């Protein structure tokens, strides 16, 4: 049985006599589900190199280690695809995702996804990991994508997301003149009963909060920085439409008053997707325990779009 590198905790003097389970859950922040899993493996939990039950008491100076079995994504076919790697270490792989590519294989779409490319990349590097994205990006959204290499790392970042500690920021190009330089959209979102694949603002929907700040105003549109408190499906697209400023290139959520502008943009051939880019992702790194920030530069199509808007009069 092969394991990933262990996570190590040296018991300080003030924690002498603590129950090992308490140390694992309160200091190493191991979830109940993950704890149940690793304690069944031979080398999952050790103290000073010896396998131990989680109900023992620890002593000052004890070396507590947890190990997770190596895993593979056996259901994902490796495929040589270009990956824009922003960062990689033993815990995480951070990519700048291109627009137009799906993150994970779906029914009827088994190839040409981020997952296929990552599995191939790891295979070539001799790395044994299961593909575990820690958050989602729509197919047509570009930007920072984080992939966990172990169940522990995935659990740690997921918990930060639940506690709203992960910082995700987006850049979006929207139609029209945004009057308020900054603001908050606090409007519930749910499915449109007439079009289930579309989301709308509705009073009985799910709580959703979006913050925005205008970075640059153009004659026909604006570049807006956006950050979220919640993560509803299509949240940015729905909330900006509700504000009266749908995203450029977003055919699903456009408004009638911008249709002629949208037609002109489409005829120019400059943009083939909604103008949304996840440019920043920040969280406490599960390995180093330090605040870590990753940034993806504006891709070529959105840079060209910015020039097009700047030239419009």
TrEMBL record:
Entry's Gene Ontology molecular function annotations: catalytic activity, acting on RNA; pseudouridine synthase activity; RNA binding
PROSITE patterns associated with the record: S4
One BP term from GO: enzyme-directed rRNA pseudouridine synthesis
Signal peptide: none
Catalysed reactions, semicolon-separated: a uridine in RNA = a pseudouridine in RNA
Domain of life: Bacteria
Xref: Pfam families: PseudoU_synth_2 (PF00849)
Top-rank EC class of the record's enzyme: isomerase
Chain ranges of the Pseudouridine synthase RsuA/RluA-like domain: 91-242
InterPro entries noted in UniProt: PsdUridine_synth_cat_dom_sf, PsdUridine_synth_RluC/D, PsdUridine_synth_RsuA/RluA, RluA_PseudoU_synthase
Entry keyword RNA-binding: yes
Keyword terms, alphabetized: Isomerase, RNA-binding
Enzyme Commission no: 5.4.99.-
Positions annotated as active site in the UniProt record: 138
Annotated function: Responsible for synthesis of pseudouridine from uracil.
Alphabetized NCBIfam families for the sequence: rluA_subfam
Family: Belongs to the pseudouridine synthase RluA family.
Protein name: Pseudouridine synthase
Origin species: Paenibacillus oryzisoli
């Amino acid at each position: 049985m092969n394991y990933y590198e262990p996570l190590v905790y040296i018991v300080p003097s003030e924690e002498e006599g603590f129950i090992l389970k308490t140390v694992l859950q309160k200091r190493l922040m191991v979830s109940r589900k993950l704890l149940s899993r690793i304690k069944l493996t031979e080398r999952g939990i050790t103290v000073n190199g010896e396998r131990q039950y989680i109900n023992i008491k620890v002593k000052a100076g004890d070396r507590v280690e947890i190990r997770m079995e190596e895993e593979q994504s056996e259901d994902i076919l490796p495929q040589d695809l270009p990956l824009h790697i922003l960062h990689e270490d033993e815990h995480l792989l951070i990519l700048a995702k291109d627009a137009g590519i799906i993150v994970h294989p779906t029914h009827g779409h088994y190839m040409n996804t981020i997952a296929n490319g990552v599995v191939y990349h790891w295979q070539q590097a001799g790395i044994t990991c299961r593909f575990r994205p820690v958050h989602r990006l729509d197919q047509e959204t570009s930007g920072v994508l984080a992939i966990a290499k172990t169940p522990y790392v995935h659990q740690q970042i997921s918990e930060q997301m639940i506690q709203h500690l992960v910082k995700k920021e987006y850049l979006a190009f929207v139609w029209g003149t945004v009057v308020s330089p900054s603001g908050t959209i606090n409007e519930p979102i749910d499915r449109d009963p007439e079009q289930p694949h579309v989301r709308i603002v509705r009073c009985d929907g799910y709580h959703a909060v979006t913050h925005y700040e205008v970075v640059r105003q153009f004659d026909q549109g604006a570049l807006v920085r956006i950050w979220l408190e919640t993560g509803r499906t299509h949240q940015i697209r729905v909330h900006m439409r509700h504000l009266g400023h749908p995203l450029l290139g977003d055919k699903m959520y456009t408004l009638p008053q911008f249709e002629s502008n949208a037609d002109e943009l489409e005829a120019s051939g400059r943009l083939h997707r909604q103008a949304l880019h996840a440019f920043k992702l920040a969280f406490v790194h599960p390995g180093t325990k330090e605040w870590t920030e990753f940034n993806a530069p504006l891709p070529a199509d959105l840079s060209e779009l910015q020039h097009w808007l700047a030239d419009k009069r």
